[in-house]
Amino acid sequence: MWLVALLLCVGVGTAGWASADPVTSPDPTSTDGQAILKPALADLTTQLGKPAKLDVKTLNVSQGWAYVNGFIKAPDGQWIDYTGTPFEVGSHSKRYVALLRDGGQGWSLVTSRVGPSDVAWANWGEEYGAPAGVVPRT
Question: Looking at 1-138, which runs of residues are DSSP E strands?
Answer without folding.
Answer: 53-62, 65-73, 95-102, 107-114
